[in-house]
Amino acid sequence: MKLYLVQHGIPKPESEDPRKPLSEIGKTEVEKVSQALKKAGIKISKIFHSGKLRAKQTAEIIGDYLNPSEGIGEAEGLNPLDPPEIWAKKLSDFKDPLMLVGHLPHLQKLCSLLVIGDSEKPIVRFRQSGVIALERDEKDNWIISWTLYPDFI
C-alpha cells in the first residue's frame, strides 16, 4: 500500500482571517506540487483531510489534479493534536493508495510511529504543501519512499 502524507499549504495569518484559509502563496505551492504529482503518474483512491479549511482547500486542489477514484472526504483523527495511533490502526483497513492531508505535529508523529514505532522521534522534515510518500511492504513494514517539497520543483 502507498500512503501520501501532505501538510496543508501556507494559510493566511489568523489576524487576517480567523478561519485560516490558504494564502495566495499557499494555493500556488499546492498547485505546483499537484502538477508534479500528476506528471509523475501518482494515482490515489481517496484523499482524507482534517476538515480545517486550509487542509480541505489543499485536498481539493490536489484532488482536482489527481482525481481520486473514491473522492475526497473529511476524517476524524487528522487534527494537529490528535493521537497518531488512530490512523496507524485505521490504515490496516486500506489496500489502495491513500492521501492524508493534515497538520503538524500529527503528521510528523504518525510518520514516525509507522516507520520506527515511536511517535516522539522525528524522522523526516515536513513542509507546508509538501508530500511524504510511504509504502507498506509485504511484512507490514512502512518505508519512506520519497519526499516532495514545493521548492524542489
From TrEMBL:
SUPFAM superfamilies: Phosphoglycerate mutase-like. InterPro entries: His_Pase_superF_clade-1, His_PPase_superfam, SixA. It comes from the Bacteria. One of its GO terms (cellular component) is cytoplasm. It holds the Pfam family His_Phos_1. One of its GO terms (molecular function) is protein histidine phosphatase activity. This is Phosphohistidine phosphatase SixA. The gene is sixA.
